[in-house]
């Protein structure tokens, strides 16, 4: 059973199920199949015809309508109703949470939902920074990418920017050129094996991070102020202290050798460096050997 959720009672469902495998069934035949009086079966068949689940034939015979045709629209309507109910529930939960938080708590924690809203809030805070921006970078770009950030505008104002990048980020396309572009803009970069989550802290007083933590999307995100933001800053400072500097090699080196050396100093293996730079492992190892044997 289960069709009661689509508006059929138990008896109507029994008769409909019995009718499905039959062709031009008589009322007496169905009554025997479901063990009900013929009068009740006839009334049930009339109701099934009204619902579009059965069709009457000449000579007092009946045939079932295909379930996907008869029940499909009702099921789609149920799904739509459930989706609308879920949306209404989410809105009610938001209202409840807002009402149960005091004014002070709402000032400390802001929830930003929707990828476009997350991007807009991120760029607002980035452009509003006064002295420094500290960032954890991991995985792939999501709401804000290297192409739509306001990094250049911010750096032109003389703001100090630091970034800790984990190795997951370097698995993405054009990761090394993007990092080098940031270095050229004046951003201090360090690398580590794995960072806790995506995070950006503005002036040590406002932080933004995904609600679900590492390995998830950035929608929804939290904007933190006060004590929570200070904790985020302390977390960044601790990870920064133990991360490895990136981009501190000599400018006199060949550009490819400089990239190899930067990755090795950041803790990458020969194989990982060859993958990032799209070079063969033999080429990377040959260049490393030449660097080690270079005079001076």
Automatic annotation (TrEMBL):
It comes from the Bacteria. Pfam families: TrmB. Residues 3-60 form the Transcription regulator TrmB N-terminal domain. SUPFAM superfamilies: Winged helix' DNA-binding domain (SSF46785). Signal peptide: none annotated. This is Helix-turn-helix transcriptional regulator.
């Amino acid at each position: 059973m289960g069709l009661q959720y689509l508006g059929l009672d138990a008896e109507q469902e029994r008769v409909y199920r019995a009718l499905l495998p039959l062709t031009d069934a008589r009322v007496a035949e169905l009554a025997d199949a479901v063990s009900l009086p013929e009068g009740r079966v006839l009334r049930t068949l009339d109701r099934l015809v009204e619902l579009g689940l059965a069709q009457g034939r000449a000579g007092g015979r009946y045939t079932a309508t295909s379930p996907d045709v008869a029940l499909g629209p009702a099921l789609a309507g149920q799904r739509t109703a459930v989706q609308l109910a879920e949306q209404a529930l989410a809105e009610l939960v938001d209202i409840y949470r807002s009402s149960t938080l005091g004014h002070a708590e709402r000032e400390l924690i802001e929830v930003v939902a929707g990828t476009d809203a997350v991007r807009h809030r991120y760029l607002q805070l980035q452009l509003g920074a006064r002295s420094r921006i500290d960032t954890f970078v991991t995985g792939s770009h999501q709401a804000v990418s290297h192409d739509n950030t306001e990094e250049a505008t911010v750096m032109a104002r003389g703001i100090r920017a630091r970034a800790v990048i984990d190795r997951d980020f370097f698995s993405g396309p054009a990761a090394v050129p993007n990092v080098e572009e940031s270095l050229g803009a004046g951003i201090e970069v360090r690398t580590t094996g794995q960072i806790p989550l995506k995070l950006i802290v503005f002036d040590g007083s406002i932080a933004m991070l995904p609600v679900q933590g590492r390995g998830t999307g950035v929608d929804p995100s939290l904007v933190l102020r006060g004590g929570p933001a200070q904790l985020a800053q302390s977390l960044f400072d601790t990870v920064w202290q133990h991360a490895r500097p990136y981009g501190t090699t000599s400018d006199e080196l060949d550009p490819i050798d400089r990239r190899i050396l930067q990755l090795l100093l950041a803790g990458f293996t020969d194989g990982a460096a060859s993958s990032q730079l799209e070079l063969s492992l033999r080429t990377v190892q040959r260049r490393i050997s030449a660097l080690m044997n270079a005079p001076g």
